[in-house]
Amino acid sequence: MIPVVTPEEMGAIDAAAPEPVEVLIERAGEATFRAALDLLGGTYGRRVVLVAGKGNNGADGRSAARRLRRRGVRVVELDPTALPAELPPADLLLDAAYGTGFHGDWRPPPVPDGAAVLAVDIPSGVDGLTGVAHGDPWPADVTVTFAALKPGLLLRDGPGLAGAVHLADIGLDTGRARIHVVERADVAAWLPDRAHDAHKWQAACWIVAGSPGMTGAAHLSASAAQRAGAGYVRLSTPGLERDPGAPVEVVGIELPAEGWADAVLADVDRIAALGVGPGLGRGDASAAAVRTLVAAPDRPPIVVDGDGLSALADEGPVGDAPPVVLTPHDGELARLGADVGAPDRIAEVRALAARRGAVVLAKGSTTVVAAPDGRVLLSTTGDARLATAGTGDVLTGVLTALLAQGLEPLEAAAAAAHLHGRAGALAWRRGLVASDVAAHLPQALAEIDDPPKD
Fold it and tell me: CA torsion angle for 33, 366, 345, 11 (degrees, to 10)?
């Protein structure tokens, strides 16, 4: 996993370093120099404009500039507080104006025509904690950052302005980081191998979703659970006697329109995980059943999504019940009591997880998964093609299947988000629908175990 630290945490890490700050600056300068060479593609006749501030960020840029000059690159250094209306011509603009602690409004002149932009640690003007851009920062082609990623590179405006992010190890200890980005290797390590004598009941799950006349969400969740490795998928739509459109491999179980939680709880002995809520409807009977199910002390781990989240809007902590994973989008986050407009999204999701005593998976371009104990995992594999109806229902099925296979709730949620994003990226850039994501899950899983060669 890739560590992520806030600007405040990064300051403490710097202060605790055994090496003097000058040594760290030279290491950062070397990493920046290497990234600059890659962007320049050579040194003969190349021109660089360095915009360097007074702090360590500027010092890192100056260290890189010294190395570039020794290679024959012409470097013009400018003060960010006294920039001309038009920057000199350049092949590369080296943005070392302001770092993660910047406060204010940054409106620099335009990037010189044809120049690539290399940002040092973070694009100047982007808040290192929140990712909010203040002013009109230069969009970087590459950002080289040090020791750990910063939240601002992953949230809100940050990813669109940072370009390709290169993480440079400069010898700092980030072992106490409580936030991490999930990588392919992490998911591969979490996914269990099936034993040679495996049988379907070892990874059995039950999806309770949909309503009469509205079964699409239920079908998507069940199909995704199958594709994500569940050995047996039971599907129920409360109040629906027969569902001919359900995936042929699922086992359909009828549930009454009211009081269905009791029927579920009476028959979960061999079920390893429950997925509840997509398309369920917001009637009083459904809401009461969801609350009964979540509060039950003898049920398996449960994923609550969609209309199931609305049923929990005014509820308190889950207490001593088995694990609960909540999977809200921003509208559902607000109904659960989170301030979706708060600048620090990670802190807000983390606080909600602590209040509810549940793992919270907050969907977004960077998905934030928080545990009640404060640990946070981030998934960055999804992109805008997942912004289509039903993809959240697919995520519910994937997550339910991973819980059924024995993954811990935090890891299951992060792995589900990672796989969900990978499956979407394997499908079409335009015209993707939710069932395409489910259909590409086996390929995504195959690439987790055996990544394609470049």
Answer: -20
Query: What residue has token string 């545990």?
Result: 371
Q: Are 10 and 175 in contact (CB under 8 A)?
A: no
Is 453's pLDDT higher than 80? no
Q: Are residues 154 and 192 in the same domain?
A: no
Looking at the structure, tell me whether residues 143 and 263 fall in a common domain.
no
**Which pLDDT does position 321 carry in this prediction?**
86
Using alpha carbons, list the distances in angstroms from residue 129 to 152, 157, 312: 5, 11, 30
- Asked whether residue 454 is domain-assigned, the answer is no
Instruction: Please list, residue by residue across 58-94, b when 16 or more beta carbons sit within 10 angstroms of its beta carbon and e when fewer do.
Output: bbbbbbbbebbeeeebebeebebeeeeeebeebbbbb
Contact (Cβ atoms closer than 8 angstroms) between residue 274 and residue 399: no
| Count of domains observed in the chain | 2
Whether the Cβ atoms of residue 251 and residue 271 lie closer than 8 Å to each other: no
| Residue 8 located in a structural domain | yes
d(CA 207, CA 184) in angstroms, rounded, equals 27
Is residue 97 within 8 A of residue 108, CB to CB? The reply is yes
Distance CA 43, CA 73 (A): 6
Rounded distance, CA 210 to CA 313, Å? 19
CA angle 254, 259, 265 (to 5 degrees): 70
Residue 351: CB atoms within 10 Å: 18
Q: Which of 188-192, 303-307, 381-385, 419-423 has the lowest mean pLDDT?
A: 381-385
For the stretch 283-331, pLDDT in tens is 999 999 999 999 999 999 999 999 999 999 988 888 888 999 999 999 9
